[in-house]
Design goal:
Blueprint (H helix, E strand, L loop, with lengths): L5 H15 L3 E4 L10 E9 L2 E9 L2 E8 L12 H9 L12 E5 L4 E5 L8 E3 L5 H9 L4 H5 L12 H15 L4 E6 L5 H14 L6 E5 L2 H13 L9 H4 L2 E3 L11 E5 H8 L39 E5 L10 H6 L3 E6 L4 H6 L4 E5 L1 H6 L6 E8 H5 L1 E3 L4 E6 L5 E5 L4 E3 L8 E2 L1 H18 L15 E4 L3 H15 L6 E3 L8 H10 L5 E4 L14 E4 L6 H8 L8 H8 L10 E5 L22 H9 L5 H17 L2 H10 L5 H10 L3 H14 L5 H20 L5 H12 L2 E4 L7 E6 L4 H18 L4 H8 L9 H14 L5 H11 L9 H13 L8 H17 L8 H17 L17 H9 L3 H12 L2
Parallel strand pairs: 1-2, 4-5, 8-13, 8-14, 9-11, 9-12, 10-11, 12-13, 15-25, 20-26, 21-23, 21-24, 22-23, 24-25
Antiparallel strand pairs: 2-3, 3-4, 5-6, 6-7, 15-27, 16-19, 17-18, 17-26
Length: 928
């Protein structure tokens, strides 16, 4: 096949793809429509000329392929008119209708249009669709894009406003046939629930065939599976899994009888490449690897998973793992793509064509009361800030990283180390102890209400982020010692912990013990731990997105009942904030939107070797790995070198290194080029170039083949960890700075004074303010509408005095009780503080909670229980309603949540003649 022109080369590539996709290719003079389900006939004659390919399915014409040479790839959209004319032409000897399926292809780039769609629009596809797919599509009354036009209005019962907005806007995006959509929702605001809700609607109403839910860690996949299995739609009382099949992929086998498939992006990549994947590759988010392939190994067509296997792909945590190597998974499938993230960066916006259907960030979620805010407490020590030095001649402990075996050794030179070296090359127990002791000493002041009947302080649920597994072990020992507690008080939750990490995580989430958990990686993202109230950072984070995800572990709300049951029995209030204890300068360290993609100093051997196994075989990468192995060989004992050879198919470290260095060696490349050119004399230059590239790729693949073995990779990574750490017991650390992080007090004071002045100026004009100043508690006339009007007037006249801004200013100057759940509750709380009703700024819902407890206590005086459990449940609903709407009237019982429980008639049934007095008393007492 030499001396071909560009058109012939394009046809050859198209033929290869058609054959792979199940089509039989025939010449127009020797056709046999019974040769297969799908037959592609070249140069079939139409009444306007020969079409490049006519596609027959079950002996009926269904489609057209217009073939162009590769150079035309950038102009394929200009060919659409031509291909459309062929599709609408009459085929020779046939009285056919217009053909619906139309392709324009160079063999490298292919575009496809289904002319049955509303407003038919071409799109780029990886390759051609299979004949069976056309049979299925033609059997349906409407196309998928037409069915999306019929999505009904969303039932909003049980959904948060942010979820309603996201799904409604996504429906509009689908109806506009936009191929990609991005949903930004703050961590903890219900992204996965939102996704399952719209997936349910796509399966039920748009008759979607299959949906792929893509994650980047096994942990996230397991959580997603649990949420699918627990989901019940608000228009059907059956579980999701009773209606649709849900399969989480854990091997290369993909059953075709499910509707929802959950997979890591790593596994789907390996499936498309027809390779097996070790489960260890699914445990960590691949974006955390510092090296990403610059020239990723391309995926090929896989007939077991054709491009049309899925209709939709939902990408969870899409800000981190959809680029470079992994982007190929998304490029492969002919699908709508929906991204879910709390922390998009510019790349994410760009990838999803700036189609942001939901913009619900952390601050909005805090204002709405969906998430809780946080305060930052700094612990800075002398050694974490400035490092230290161990003098030559000092006898120090040394420790093998992996085995933790310790031995004594005298230093033969000064060991100068910076704070950044701590807990990697140098371990200073005094630094860890100083931070833990400072944490223990300051927790009671942070949570002053956490004491039991005997006056003992109860430690809130606390999560510590450690640098490494070894660092985590050191922290655990010191935590248990400093707090004077037993083993179950503090545990490690990492992928490498000997105790089942899922079991410990479940205990941390639901049981009293452990009170403190230490993690390196496992619960940095995507894990819901509602009772968690303190995050202690003892590792720095350079990725802005990853840091936001880590902070998200603490943002979940938690009711007083759940907090008492699962977290802290001594808690007096619902969780209204969490505390970040910054012991490493993580709040001040420079963050980037994304991790660096190029080689940089300080990259771990694990990242290097994993990247090579994942397909990054660039010259930089292979030379880096070779240099690391050379250094490693000089440090290993003979028995370890023998073990390496056994796991490397008989190759020594030196032989592996030579192969790695030869892979991109210019002399080897020149030799390969000369050899191929000699063997292919007379062939077209493009064919020779392709053959040279194939031979060079074989050399590279041979060089890295040993690293496909996960046992060898683990051996190299683990043996490196056995190398020694120095234990610095000479230098004792001390606190240099400790306390809450505060803004400038002058700014906060000025803002509060402006707010007070505005309130005073308007007190005679606005009814809501008149009531507050009169303090006569005429709460039946004090309505939600009045407060909303006051809030709008304030924001219109003084935008900088928005209630949340003023609340934050108070937090800088004085202790506050609660948080700004939303701007109306914040406004009421602020006015009460300004006019002197409250001496401390207290969230209005907390005031209502306290007054409700007092009222119930008063009602129970002299009685065992004044109200039945059913009456108490109803009263609690009324209390919650007043906390958010400031009063309750009879008409309100027609609204949520009362209407679902029987409305006003149920109220009369429960309280009879006392109904009116109960309503009046609650209006008067709760807001007092």
């Amino acid at each position: 096949m030499h001396n071909q022109n560009p058109e012939q080369i394009a046809r050859d590539n198209i033929d290869k793809q058609l054959l792979a996709c199940g089509w039989v290719i025939q010449d127009k003079k020797k056709f046999n429509l019974a040769a297969g389900l799908g037959v592609a006939i070249r140069e079939y004659q139409t009444d306007i000329g020969p079409a490049d390919y006519v596609l027959f399915v079950d002996k009926k014409p269904t489609g057209i392929i217009e073939a162009k040479r590769e150079e035309e790839g950038l102009r394929l959209t200009t060919v659409e008119e031509q291909s459309s004319q062929y599709a609408n032409a009459k085929l020779r000897l046939l009285n056919n209708d217009p053909l619906p399926f139309v392709y324009e292809s160079t063999g490298e780039v292919t575009r496809f249009t289904d002319y049955r769609d509303p407003k038919p629009r071409s799109r780029t596809v990886f390759t051609f669709h299979r004949p069976e797919t056309f049979v299925q599509w033609l059997s349906q009354e409407k196309t998928l894009r037409a069915r999306l036009q019929d999505l009904p209005a969303l039932p909003v019962e049980g959904l948060r406003d942010c979820q309603v907005t996201a799904i409604t806007n996504l429906d509009t995006s689908f109806k506009d046939q936009r191929p990609k959509a991005l949903i930004q929702m703050a961590t903890g605001s219900g992204k996965t629930f939102t996704a399952i809700t719209f997936i349910y609607r796509l399966l039920k109403y748009a008759k979607a065939k299959r949906v792929l839910f893509l994650v980047d860690t096994k942990n996230l996949g397991e959580q997603a599976e649990s949420e699918f299995r627990a989901f019940t739609a608000n228009d059907d009382n059956r579980l999701f899994t009773e209606l649709y099949g849900v399969t989480r992929l854990n091997s290369s086998f993909i059953p075709n009888d499910s509707q929802v498939y959950i997979s890591t992006i790593q596994r789907m990549y390996s499936i498309l490449k027809n390779t097996e994947l070790d489960e260890s590759a699914e445990e960590e988010n691949p974006n955390e690897s510092r090296f990403i392939p610059k020239e990723p190994v391309p995926v090929g067509y896989n007939e077991k998973v054709p491009i049309e296997f899925f209709d939709f792909v939902v990408i969870d945590e899409c800000h981190r793992s959809i680029y470079n190597l992994w982007k190929q998974v998304l490029d492969y499938f002919d699908v709508f793509q929906i991204g879910l993230t709390a922390t998009p960066d510019n790349r994410t916006f760009g990838y999803f064509n700036q189609n942001l259907v939901s913009d619900y960030g952390y601050e909005k979620a805090v204002i709405d009361g969906v998430l809780v805010p946080y305060n930052v407490f700094t612990i800075e020590t002398e050694i974490t800030k400035n490092g230290s030095v161990i003098k030559m001649g000092e006898k120090v402990d040394k420790r093998e990283r992996l085995t933790r075996r310790q031995f004594w050794e005298a230093l033969d030179e000064d060991e100068v180390y910076s704070g950044k070296k701590l807990d990697n090359d140098i371990v200073n127990p005094s630094t860890i102890r100083t931070i833990i002791k400072a944490t223990k000493d300051n927790l009671p002041a942070m949570f002053p209400d956490r004491r039991d009947a005997d006056g003992n302080f109860e430690v809130p649920k606390l999560l510590i982020f450690a640098k490494t597994d070894s660092h985590a072990e050191d922290i655990i020992d010191i935590v248990r010692e400093e707090f004077g507690e037993e083993n179950k008080f503090c545990k490690k939750i990492t992928y490498r912990s000997e105790e089942d990490p899922k079991s410990v995580l479940q205990q941390f989430r639901n049981d009293y013990y452990p009170r403190i958990a230490v993690t390196v990686d496992m619960i940095a993202t995507g894990t819901d731990i509602r009772p968690l109230e303190v995050l202690l950072f003892m590792r720095d984070v350079k990725s802005k997105s990853y840091y936001e995800q880590m902070k998200g572990r603490g943002t979940r709300t938690c009711s007083i009942e759940e907090l008492k049951a699962k977290g802290t029995p001594t808690a007096k209030f619902s969780k209204d904030h969490f505390v970040i204890i910054d012991a490493i300068g993580v709040e001040q360290s420079q963050k980037t939107d994304s991790r660096p993609l190029e080689k940089a100093p300080g990259i771990s051997l694990k990242d290097v070797i994993t990247s090579v196994a994942m397909g990054n075989t660039s010259e930089d990468m292979l030379s880096t790995l070779a240099n690391r192995l050379i250094r490693l060989e000089n440090q290993l004992q003979d028995k370890h070198k023998i073990e390496f050879t056994e796991k490397a198919n008989g190759l020594t470290i030196n032989q592996v290194v030579k192969k790695l260095l030869h892979a991109h060696d210019p002399d080897v490349i020149e030799s390969t080029t000369s050899k191929v050119k000699g063997e292919m004399r007379g062939f077209a230059p493009i064919e020779i170039e392709k053959a040279i590239a194939v031979e060079q790729q074989k050399i590279i693949e041979d060089a890295v083949a040993v690293f496909n073995n996960p046992e060898l990779r683990d051996f190299v990574i683990d043996i490196r960890k056995k190398l020694d750490q120095i234990i610095d017991v000479v230098n004792i650390d001390s606190i240099t700075n400790i306390g809450w992080v505060k803004d400038k007090e002058e700014t906060s004071t000025a803002l509060i004074n402006d707010f007070k002045a505005w309130i005073k100026t308007n007190k005679d004009e606005i009814t809501a303010l008149q009531i507050f100043y009169a303090q006569d508690y005429r709460h039946r006339t004090f309505t939600y509408t009045m407060i909303k009007e006051l809030c709008e007037k304030l924001k219109t006249e003084k935008p900088l005095l928005a209630p949340v801004n003023v609340w934050k200013a108070y937090e800088q100057l004085e202790k506050t009780n609660g948080s700004a759940k939303n701007e109306l509750i914040a406004l009421v709380s602020l006015i009460r503080r300004v006019v002197g009703i409250d001496s401390t700024l207290t969230s209005y819902d907390k005031t209502v909670d306290k007054n409700f407890q007092d009222w119930i206590f008063k009602k129970n005086a002299g009685k065992h229980n004044a109200f039945t459990e059913d009456q108490m449940q109803w009263l609690r609903m009324m209390k919650d309603y007043v906390a958010n709407s400031f009063s309750i009237e009879k008409d309100d019982f027609d609204l949520t949540p009362f209407n679902a429980e029987g409305g006003l008639s149920k109220m009369w049934q429960l309280f009879g003649e006392e109904t009116n007095s109960i309503i009046n008393e609650l209006n008067e007492m709760l807001a007092a």
